[in-house]
Amino acid sequence: MKFCKEYRQYMQGKEETLPVLGFKKLKKIMKKCRRDFRCKKNIDGFHDSQTCPDHCPVCDGTIFPTLLKDMSSVVGSFNEQAQKLLELHLASGFQKYFLWLRGNRQSDHTALIQKGKDLVSYALINAIAIRKILKKYDKIHDSKQGQTFKSQAQSMRIEILQSPWLCELMAFLINSRDSKVKSENAPAFEGCNLIFNDGKPSLTCEIFESIIKLDIDLTCSICLTVFDPVSLTCGHIFCYMCACSAASVTIIDGLKAAEAKGKCPLCREVGVFDGAVHLDELNILLSQSCHEYWEQRHQRERVERIQQAKQYWENQCLAFSARNQATSSS
């Protein structure tokens, strides 16, 4: 079965709740572009340009703007729905009831697992569709514009495989699958796994007949392990305390207190700390998979957190005393 038909079949019935890429429409546009390109090539007799011709109406006016809009809609909807699902799953009794009143009524664990599975599949099949469109575009135009667009999309944070909520959903599905308390009706999802290579953890996901294989490195590039993970807006994962150290903030102030010009320690992208996402499901998964190490690291970090908290409040008291003295003297 051709992927275009497979994509349409998969998305059938989902259009009301999830945005859809205009995959078929974009393919038709590229077919027309290919015909026009071949006609021009035959008329000229040769074509020595290695990039798409200047002022190509397909490039400048249709393909990339349409794809940019579709990708933004897809990743925006995915992030919103994944965040709501995980918020409901991790909520306490009262919080869960409050969320239920707000309209998140899929509190049944089996329904949450199925929804999580559907969202992961949705993310991956759209990632495949985008990859195929860009690859087809480069082939037709004998260019690398598609790959350039992909890099731009990553820098704009609309590449769905970079979403921290995809990482969280994968961890959620693994936790649900490996949980001792299982629902008999809970759908199994074997595509996602946590693996260790030379002691370094990574999340993998391989579905749709292995058309795409996702491999997310979970190793913090600062301490070369991982504990209490957070994902910066650039997509790189660090330990929370390592991220705070890199941002030059205390754990009391948190990453939101980081300067806007703060850079990711790995890719050096600016302004990546304020929107960092705490990966709670991944934290649960790693704590269960590396229990002994987790306990040791927890004890070490507990001491450091107490020291930082003590220093923070001592500084606050000194500042308060200084203000009182200045007020009294005036």
Q: What's the main sheet like?
A: 3 strands, antiparallel
Could you give the count of β-strands?
A: 6
Q: Mean pLDDT score, rounded?
A: 82
Order of helices and strands: HHHHHHHEEEEEHEHH
Head-to-tail CA distance between termini: 83 Å
As laid out across the biggest beta sheet, the strand order is 1-2-3
Question: How does the overall form come out from the CA principal axes?
Answer: globular
Oligomer: single chain
Q: How much of the polypeptide forms β-strand, as a percent range?
A: 5-15%
Give the low-confidence spans.
45-51
Number of helices: 10
Helix content: 55-70%
What is the structural class? mainly alpha
Radius of gyration: 24 Å
Structural description of this entry:
With 330 residues, the chain is mainly alpha-helical. The protein is built from ten helices and six strands; from the N terminus they run αααααααβββββαβαα. It has helices at 3-11, 23-44, 57-90, 93-102, 109-141, 145-155, 164-178, 240-246, 280-289, 291-329, and strands spanning 192-197, 200-207, 212-217, 229-231, 237-239, 277-278. Strands 1-2-3 form a three-stranded antiparallel beta sheet, covered by helices on one side. Strand 1 and strand 2 form a beta hairpin. Helix 1 packs antiparallel against helix 5, helix 3 packs antiparallel against helix 5 and helix 5 crosses helix 7. It is globular and about 80 Å long. The protein starts with a helix and ends with a helix. The model is unreliable at 45-51 (pLDDT under 50).
Structural key phrases:
330 residues, mainly alpha, 3-stranded antiparallel beta sheet, 10 helices
